[in-house]
């Protein structure tokens, strides 16, 4: 496996289930058992009602592009050697927005609203990074 | 109207400096107090950002040997200093201080900090979800610009009008960083940084700093010049991250209505507006959200020179962050330029008969969480 030079997540106890899901190539979304709200990014409380009674649901991994930008200049670690790359907000079928990269696509063919699906890059024994690619 | 007035301002004029962040603030504080006709010993409220430098207020208070009875290190991005005016007014009204000093200093340019394109990771919890993807400040604003274009048909040429207006004003400001005129064509043909934002859609990187002195109205008779009145102030944070956001509505949509209601003025009463211009899209979104035009009509609104001197709503008469001065957090310059306009001190770039000015700072990024702070200021 080539050395991974981009930033890695600093996994914390409250986020560990999410990253364990990624390791299994599942994108988990939190749902509040108290009020039913779904949220991303995951956290220790429901952002709607502050309940701690949260469950983790596997998402379908299907999403649509909410917005994107083709980055031509950056200082970001690991990315400055791969210009241009695509930063995007996508909206999962489950209704939450996710900041991500769009990969495996020609930037010229991208459009807001296009369907994408999650894909995972296994970067080390503990971490798989979710990204999205045209469905 | 708030029971506080702005008595003194100063913008540090160098765009590249060998002075330190603390020295920039000391020189700015001294000049702003002199502008007010007050002395260092009069200061009993102190405001700066927590990143400026180290633990913020502590370092600067120590360097300046101040003895404040009220200290505020509110740090909500580039809008912080606009919010500081709001907080100073509240502290003054509460009797916690009478002379509030706000300072800022930065050596971003001489330190080689790529404000817009560096990796935007701040050591926060959310980094593990957002910091993995090559995020930069310009990229996060570009996401909003792209969406705005998709939904409303806004064009790069329309965004460019904002940069052209700021550059024209910079040409009238002897200390602006870039003063040569530019055209819409220059902007849209400048290198793409993060689509759809081009190089000339992005603010400059400078060293810089400044100071603002906010005082109790009772002190007005002791001041060197009649103070500028604070007609309204409001602040908000938007796009907090539960994963369900409309990125085309910014914090200005919350602060604008509150500020206009408090000031008792209408949009037509605003003679000039200092709108945080980190990027052209920031200005367009802010103008819409403050209610100068309907949501989605910002592209047409900024056309035809409306934002230039002589137009209906001249903005950023100093040249803004796009052409004059952006050391990382430029909110303080919005306040300083608005005060100078209301005092009629702007020379070639003076807005004729300037009576009411609006200031709006945006801090953080429109593409994630951000703050907004609005002031409405009135001539003495």
Question: What does this entry look like structurally?
Answer:
The complex is a heterodimer of chains A (135) and B (380). In chain A, a hairpin with a 5-residue loop joins strand 7 (115-122) and strand 8. A five-stranded antiparallel beta sheet of chain A has the order 6-5-4-7-8. Chain A is built from one helix and eight strands, in the order H-E-E-E-E-E-E-E-E. Chain A is mostly beta strands. The model of chain A has no long low-confidence stretch (mean pLDDT 95). By secondary structure, chain B is α/β, with parallel strands linked by helices. Chain B is built from twelve helices and eleven strands. In chain B, helix 6 packs across helix 9 (280-290) and helix 8 (252-263) packs across helix 9 (280-290). Chain B is globular and about 55 Å long. Chains A and B meet through strand 2, strand 4, strand 5 and strand 6 of A and helix 4, helix 5 and strand 5 of B.
Give the tags:
heterodimer; A: 135 residues; mainly beta; five-stranded antiparallel sheet; three-stranded antiparallel sheet; 1 helix; B: 380 residues; alpha/beta; Peroxisomal Thiolase, Chain A, domain 1; 2 domains; nine-stranded mixed sheet; two-stranded antiparallel sheet; 12 helices; 11 strands
Order of H and E elements of chain B? EHEHEHEHHHHEEEEHEHHHHEE
C-alpha termini separation of chain B: 13 Å
Strand arrangement, major sheet of chain B: 3-2-4-7-1-8-11-10-9
Q: Bin the strand percentage of chain A.
A: 35-45%
Largest beta-sheet details of chain A: 5 strands, antiparallel
Beta-strand segment tally of chain A:
8
Structural class of chain B: alpha/beta
Mean pLDDT of chain B: 95
Q: Mean of residue pLDDT of chain A? A: 95
Uncertain runs of chain A are none
Main beta sheet strand tally, sense and closure of chain B: 9 strands, mixed
Oligomer: heterodimer
Order of secondary-structure elements of chain A: HEEEEEEEE
Question: Main interface pair?
Answer: A-B, 46 and 43 residues
